[in-house]
Write a structure and sequence with these properties.
Helix content: 40-55%
Order of helices and strands: HEEHHHHEEEHEEHHHEEEHHEHHEEH
Distance between the termini: 119 Å
Radius of gyration: 41 Å
C-alpha cells in the first residue's frame, strides 16, 4: 500500500509530503524532492532541520505546527528561498488524525506557481506599457478588425474605444496614398510579418496627421496569423521642424525672401531659358541708404522691421514670376525675366517711389 501510495504521489505535478507529529518525513514525492533539492534515501525519518537551511526549516516547521494546532486545513501562498532560486508556492497543509482522534501527522500539498506568477507579472507589465505608452497602439484580429486600443491612440486620433472597437483598422485611412502603397504593406506583412514606415492618417475631426507606423503580425504555434499589432507616433512636429529647416536652407529667416543659394539656382535656370529664347534677364540691386544709422540710433529690432517692410513694399511692385532675394544686410536683389529695359527702368522708379 505504501509503494502504491508513493507511486500515485509521484505521478502528480503537485508537491506532496507527509511528516509525523515530530516533523520527521514519512513520505515525499518526486516533485517535492526536486523543488527542495533532496534525495529520497536521505529524507525519510529526518526532519527539515536536518535537511534544509535553518531559516527555511524553521519556517516549514512552524507552518506544520500551525496546521496541527488548528486541526483543519490551512491554505497559503508562500515564497521560499530554496538554494539560489525563489519559488512561489500555493500550499495546503492539513492534519492527519488517527482512530483515537489524535493528530499523528501533517500532509503538505503545494503547487509551484513560479512560472505562472512570472507570466502574470509579464502580462501586468505589458498591460502597463500598453496603457501608458506615449505611442498609439492598436490590436486587430486576423481580419483587420480592431479589438483593442490604448489611451495614446485616442489622444492622437480623437477616436475613443466606443468609436473603433469592432471597426476595420482602415478607419484611419486618409486616402493620401495610392493603392500600391497599401498593397506593399499587405505584401510585407505576408512575407516578413512586419512593415514600418511613414503614413498619413485621418483623425476623427478630419485633420490629416503624419505618423511613423510599425505593424507586426502575431502568429500562433502553427504559423497562422491571429492578430496584428500597430504602434504609431504623431510626427507632425518633426515634419514641421524638418520643413522649416529645409525652408531656411533656401530662404532668409528675417524677410522670408529667397536667400543667395535659391537666387543662384533661379539665376542659372533663368540664364538657360534666356539663351534658349534669345532673351535677356535683368538683375536689379537694391540697398537702403543710411541703414547703419537706423540700427545705431533705433536698435536692431527697428532695423529688422525696416528690412521686412522694405521687402514687402518691393514685392508689391513686382510681378508674381519675378524673384526678390536678400543677399545679406540691407542688400536685396531683384531678378526679372521676359521683360525689356524700359519696363525694368519703370519698375526701378516704382520701387524708389514705394520706398521713399
Amino acid at each position: 500500500l505504501r509503494s502504491r501510495l508513493l507511486e500515485v504521489m509521484d505521478k502528480t505535478a503537485s508537491l506532496c509530503a507527509i511528516k509525523d507529529e515530530s516533523g520527521r518525513y514519512e513520505l515525499a514525492n518526486s516533485r517535492y524532492l526536486e523543488i527542495f533539492g533532496l534525495e529520497r534515501e536521505r529524507v525519510e525519518g529526518r526532519t527539515d532541520a536536518e535537511l534544509l537551511d535553518g531559516t527555511l526549516a524553521e519556517r516549514l516547521r512552524e507552518a506544520d505546527l500551525d496546521a496541527m494546532r488548528r486541526r483543519r486545513p490551512i491554505e497559503s501562498e508562500e515564497t521560499l528561498q530554496i538554494g539560489e532560486r525563489l519559488h512561489h508556492l500555493r500550499v495546503t497543509r492539513f492534519p492527519l488524525v488517527d482512530i483515537d482522534g489524535k493528530v499523528s501527522a501533517v500532509c503538505t500539498q503545494a503547487t509551484d506557481v513560479t512560472e505562472r506568477r512570472a507570466a502574470d507579472e509579464g502580462l501586468r507589465l505589458a498591460a502597463s506599457v500598453f496603457n501608458y505608452a506615449s505611442e498609439g497602439i492598436c490590436v486587430a484580429d486576423a481580419d483587420g478588425v480592431l479589438i483593442s486600443i490604448n489611451d495614446a491612440f485616442t489622444r492622437i486620433t480623437g477616436y475613443s474605444q466606443e468609436d473603433v472597437i469592432g471597426q476595420p483598422a482602415t478607419i484611419l485611412k486618409a486616402d493620401c496614398h495610392p493603392p500600391a502603397f497599401y498593397a506593399g504593406i499587405r505584401e510585407a506583412l505576408a512575407s516578413a510579418g512586419k512593415w514600418q514606415g511613414e503614413i498619413w492618417n485621418r483623425r476623427k475631426d478630419g485633420e490629416l496627421v503624419p505618423a511613423w507606423l510599425t505593424v507586426g503580425a502575431v502568429r500562433d504555434d502553427s504559423g497562422t496569423v491571429r492578430h496584428f499589432v500597430g504602434i504609431f507616433s504623431d510626427i507632425s512636429a518633426i515634419k514641421a521642424s524638418q520643413e522649416r529647416i529645409d525652408y531656411l536652407a533656401t530662404h532668409d529667416e528675417l524677410t522670408e525672401l529667397p536667400n543667395r543659394t535659391l537666387l543662384n539656382d533661379r539665376v542659372k535656370h533663368a540664364i538657360a531659358r534666356a539663351e534658349h529664347r534669345n532673351e535677356r534677364i535683368y538683375l536689379m540691386l537694391v540697398d537702403l541708404d543710411n541703414f547703419k544709422v537706423i540700427n545705431e540710433n533705433l536698435g536692431h529690432e527697428a532695423g529688422d522691421e525696416l528690412l521686412r517692410q522694405a521687402a514687402l513694399r518691393i514685392q508689391e511692385t513686382m510681378r508674381p514670376e519675378d524673384t526678390l532675394a536678400r543677399l545679406g544686410g540691407d542688400e536685396l536683389i531683384l531678378l526679372v525675366e521676359d521683360s525689356d529695359s524700359e519696363r525694368v527702368a519703370q519698375l526701378g522708379r516704382r520701387i524708389l517711389d514705394y520706398l521713399s
